[in-house]
Structure formats: structure tokens, C-alpha cells
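the two lines:
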Amino acid sequence: MRRREFLGRAAAFAAAAPLSSGPISSLARAQAAPLRADGARVNGWLAQMDSIGRTAGGINRVAYSEADVAGRAFTLGLFRQAGLAPRIDAAGNIVGRLEGTQPSLPPIVIGSHVDSVTDGGNFDGPLGSFAAVEVARSLREQGNRLRHPLEVVVWSNEEGGTIGSKLAVGEPVDLDSVARSGKTLREGIGIVGGDIAKLEAAVRPEGSVACYIELHIEQGGRLDQAGLQVGVVEGIVGLRWIEVVIEGFANHAGTTPMDDRRDAMLAAARFTVAVNEAIRSEPGRQVATVGRLVPTPNTRNVIAGRVDLAVDLRDLDAAKVERFAARFRHLGQEIGAATQTTFTFRDATSSRPAMSDPAIMDLVEGSARALGLSTQRMPSGAGHDAQELAQICPMGMIFVPSVGGISHSPREFTKPEDVANGADMLLNAVVRADTRV
Amino acid sequence: MRRREFLGRAAAFAAAAPLSSGPISSLARAQAAPLRADGARVNGWLAQMDSIGRTAGGINRVAYSEADVAGRAFTLGLFRQAGLAPRIDAAGNIVGRLEGTQPSLPPIVIGSHVDSVTDGGNFDGPLGSFAAVEVARSLREQGNRLRHPLEVVVWSNEEGGTIGSKLAVGEPVDLDSVARSGKTLREGIGIVGGDIAKLEAAVRPEGSVACYIELHIEQGGRLDQAGLQVGVVEGIVGLRWIEVVIEGFANHAGTTPMDDRRDAMLAAARFTVAVNEAIRSEPGRQVATVGRLVPTPNTRNVIAGRVDLAVDLRDLDAAKVERFAARFRHLGQEIGAATQTTFTFRDATSSRPAMSDPAIMDLVEGSARALGLSTQRMPSGAGHDAQELAQICPMGMIFVPSVGGISHSPREFTKPEDVANGADMLLNAVVRADTRV
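prediction for all of em together
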């Protein structure tokens, strides 16, 4: 565990760099009357982004695709307009920096991502990315200079397993794995302007970041159902992506008697049902999903000889994730024996649960109170770049409501007033963190 | 039912055209000593064909693809070498003709197809097509002139639902349906040299064909398991392709609680298991297969919002096919209600069981006896162009063994001696039919 406690770090920094008597403390200003970001501007940028990678099925800006590159180009333009001379680090992340009054301090980092899932929505990622740009721009335009440098980062390939942020914290990544765009990470990182020969240069060591705060849509329906405005994230669930290959034998669907078959599709169907029954067999918030399934040859009159599928398994409790992964493996072996097929399991991606820093949760709540916004503490069922950053610095996340709890869907939507609230929340949280870190 | 009885027709023809005193009767020759085709030549052509459309996954000459066009070009060359000046009819079928001594008689038609399934084998189709060319070539080279004209036909797009032969017998076909190659039938028929504006010209009315005989690999394992050389086909099972669309709601796999889901993949899995259990719940040779399944968006961290799948259902008893189709529909409605998804059913392709003509079965068995080959009567679990021809003329089929019963697979194989036996059988059956029809 490389995670560090925020309060301990805050104390250390307080000793090294006490509040200066320089420009008027942002903290004092924020507590007296909260700062405001330009929410209309963020909503406008989101509306422009909505036309990039929009297809009949939804937003398709999968990492390293042409649409992803186009979305990043639009985002780079926003960085430049904000005065954040952006650079692309070796991992393909977009990085902009606003200098602080105390250059020796490590930066406060804010940001999110702009790549999407297949047939996704326009708010998952762009909201937090654009709000972070807006926070830097507002601070600059309003003449509010932080003590810490402020870095705005748009992480590359979040939806493919937080690849850009993993590389930024030095986590191992299989560069030969294939992204949704069909490109390997090795190819894709080059396409978005990274340099795989210099990945080490993109690594941020522990202690090099004061804290990381990310604004994101909730992607679930708790805030919307409860009529609340802001979610204070307690932690991010651990995620396991298990790739399963089921091998049977391809044969003619008309001439092969039912008893002579080794039908990989039937085995995959039984497994999908069994995974669902298992995950629901005990109380708790754990989830498991078979969302991807590719039969071969996938034709009407041929018994499937092979099925590749993936299980997405999540919970805040790492031990529970481990236990269910083992149970799924056991179910696969049983079904394989019963259907004369063979199951092979591989863990494609795995992340430990990541807990938010309690002091950041407090200052997020303080910001909401100052802005007059209602809050609820909640876990994040989705993975985020913040979980990677939590390995090297104190981390916090701010959620705003998703209408109907819909996400990873073309119907994903967050109301303009909630977008504006999110930008205000991020701005005030950054200003408060600046005085505490 | 437009099917006609062979014996009735034979009697009618016998009256109209009694055996002439012209060239020595082929029948007499065949019964005295069976004719021989050049089996080595057929095996050589199959070996050449094996390189066309061969990929890592198997033979891919799906209808209207570039590989299909290449396979047809090779086949057209064989027609020309055999002296069968080939033409392409409006439906895209390749037709060659050898004139008989009695030009007023309707033709005996023999043939098969050369298109393949996805990742299929090299014998399903080409064997019967090339053997038919060889029969015409042998007759010509050996100076055996039939009374009837002999037509060799390679039907287009057999694997997509016997499209070429359906059009040739005037069956309705949806020209806007999409073939495996991604092209509509409308586009594809043009690609292979047909002319959709003149489809009526390709229709063969009832009574215009003396009889149809097709040689094919068995595609099942009965002959191979029993150590027999020739299958005498009793009939072809009825086939129903049922397309099922399951609509749920696409949402985030991490943030959507298990109880709030409308998971189309889970519904599809339950349905696939239910279809398998239903078809096996009563005795008989009926088969049902889910071989094609396409989830949307088909990505690891999104609950599937939609699944398109197809059920392949077959039996020799048309009423049983009807009954199971209704049962599957009922199962879909039940599973839809339980999973909050909606099931929509559409019959994509449907063919009635087609019975072989008893007199053709007899003369096929007579040919085998003359050639010293062992036989067994059997149904065909696979669909064939012969089932369409059965609507306008007496029909028969000859099977040779598939090693291990494997078909629609790159491991599909028929031994060279069985290929040669098949060509000999087809030659002698044609000669015997010529004296009977």
C-alpha cells in the first residue's frame, strides 16, 4: 500500500510552508463567500463535445480512435484558451499547469478523461475534464492565485482500464493488450501523442502530488432518486475483469445430434446465468456483469466452437472480490465438465478498492455547505482515474447527479444546473485544499 | 404442395417417349457394367478449390464475397473445360447444358453449390458441384449421349438459405435481407452476375425438369460410424431460422445495482439454456441451436442493452417444427417478463421437410449395388438445394461419408476414395434415371 494519509501530509506541509502573508488567502475568501465558476461555459463546451464521435448508437470516442483524437484536439483548444499551455506526457495524458505562489510545493491535481465506452454518453469524463479547465480559467480570470501549483490533467484511455493514470503512478500495464479501437496500447499511446520509450518520465512518485480531486457524474441513480445535489465519494470499488475462453467444437447445426455436441454457446449461456445467480445469492452491494460475449464462428447454422466472454466484478471489499472470482472459476469448471467444453480464465484488469481521504471529504462537504448544496456520502461503483492517484496522494471525488441513473448509454444526461454546481464545487474544493495541504 | 410423384411422371414419359432404337441404351450399359467417372480429377479440383477463401479460421467463401466470386470463377473454368458453355441465370446460378438425343424432353438436373459458411470446410458444396461437372465431362468423353438434356447447376448462396434454388423454383425471397458478406441479396445477386430485374426468367416451372439428383457429403457421422460407403437420402428435414431481438437497457456495469437491471445478455443466456432444455425434453431427432448471438454494445463494463440472436430449428416432421417454434416464443415471453426485457420474434427462413422420390432412392441403391458399394437409407439433417427442387420435380440425394461427422468446420473432410465413389454413384444414377424418367 503506497497510499498516504492526507492529514499526516497536511501537518508536514503546514510545518514546511505555513500560510504566507502574501496575497489575500483564498481560504478566507472562500469561507466568506464561495467562489463561482462559469457553469454556462462548461455547459457550452459539453454541447460542442457532443458532436464529436456521436453515432446512431451513442458517443463513440473509444481510446485511440479517430473520434478520441478529435475529442482530445477540442480539449487541447480549451486548455490553450484557459492559458494552460498544454503538454502531452509520455503516457498520452494531457497536462496543463497554473503556477502557484509557492513554487516549491507539489501541485494540486484535478482532471478526468475524455475517451468513452462504445455507444456511451457525453458526460462521463468530459464533465470533470472541462470543469477542471474551467476552475483553472476562473482562478486566472478572477486573479485568485493559489499557493500550490494547479495541474489540470486529462488522463488517456480511462475506459480501457484507467491506462493513462496507471502509467502516471507507475502501475504495470500490458502494452500489447488490445483496446476497443482495435489498437494495442503500444500503438494507441503513440497515436495520442505519447512516447512509450519514455514512459518512466510520466511517472509521478509518491509525495509529488499534494492531492487529487476529480469531479464526475455519479453514473448511478442514488442522488437523482434522493433529490440531492452532490455526492461526497467515500471510496471506489475494487474491479476485476475476468476474461473467459470457452472451447467446444464447431459443427453443423442440422446434422449433429443434441447428445453429440460440444456447444460453447450453451456453456457460455449457462455460465452467464450461473454468475448472475451467484452474485445475487448473498446480501451486499457487489455486482457482476457479462457485458461482452463473442461466439465463433457466430453464424446461425453452426454450433459455436468457441466463445470469448468477460465478467466485470466489483465490490468495496477486496476479499469479497477475490472470493467471487474463485467461485466463478469453479462454476466454469463445473459447466465445462457438464457440456464437454473447456473454460480458461484470465484476469485482464484488476484494481483494489481505493478509499477517499477523510479530510478531502470534509472540505468537499464544507464547499457544498458554503454553496448551499445538499450532499450525501456514497461509494463509487464505477472505476475512476482517482483510484490510481490514491496510490500516490490523498484523493477525493465529487459526484453530481445522473438523470435516471443512466450512464454508459446515449441517454446519459446531467442537468445544466448540476454541471454548474459541479464546477463550483470543484473550484471551492481546490481553494480549500490549497490552504490545507 | 407442388411436388409431383416420380412414378406417375415416369409412366407419362414412357408413353410419350419410349426407349428408342438409336444409340446403345445407357441403361443396358450401366446394368451390364457400371460406368466410371474420373474420381482423381474431382479430387484434384477439390484440392485446387481448397486454396480459395482459405483463412486461419477455415474456408470463408460466404456468398457474394470476393472469395465466393473467386470460387465461382474457378468453377466456371471447370464447366468450360468440360464443354459445358456455362451461363449465369438471373438468380446468379451457374448453368451448363449437355444436349440429349431427344430435345423435346425436359432436362435431368444435377449440381450443388460452392459458397461456404463462415469458417467452414471445402467439401460442403464443391463435392457435388464438381462431381456433376465430372459426370457431364465423362459422358461426353466416353461418348455416352443421354436421351434427356443434362443440366449441371451450381446454385448461388446455398448457405444463406438456398437462395439461388429458391429463386429458381419461384419461392419468395426477401431481396433486402443481408447475407453473411454484409451485402443484401439484391446487391449480391448482381455481384455474382445475376440480374434481379429478370428474376422471373430464372424460374423453372413445375414439369420443366425431369428430375434433380444431388451428391453431397453427409455432414453427420452415421455413415462414418457404421463403416458404410453411401447414404440414400429419404428426405430433408424442415428448417426454421427464428431471429430474436431482446431489448433491455444499456447501463453502467459498476453503478447499477443487480436488482435495477434490464440485462439483455442475461435474458439471452436464459433463453439459450431454455431452448436447449426444451428441445431435449422429448424423444426424437429434432435439433435446435443458438449459433449466432450479437450483444450491443458488447463491451465489458456496460450491461447489454440489446441482444440479437438466432435459433436454428429442424425436424423431418413439419408439425413438430411448428410446435417447438411456438414453445420457444412462449419461453421468450416468460423470460422477458422475469428479466424486464422484451423479446421480439421473426421467422427469417423457413423450409418444409422435403421427401425424396422413392423411385430415385431405388435407382440410387441399384447404382450402388452395381458399383459394389454399401448403402444405408437416412434423413438429411442439413438443408440442401434439393429441397427446393423437390417442389417442381422428383428429387433424390446421394451422401458420402464425412470423417468424424464433422462439417461446417475447417476439419470437414471426406476421403478421396469416397469422393470418387460419389462421382461414380452420381454418374450411374443419372444414366439409370435417363432410362426411367
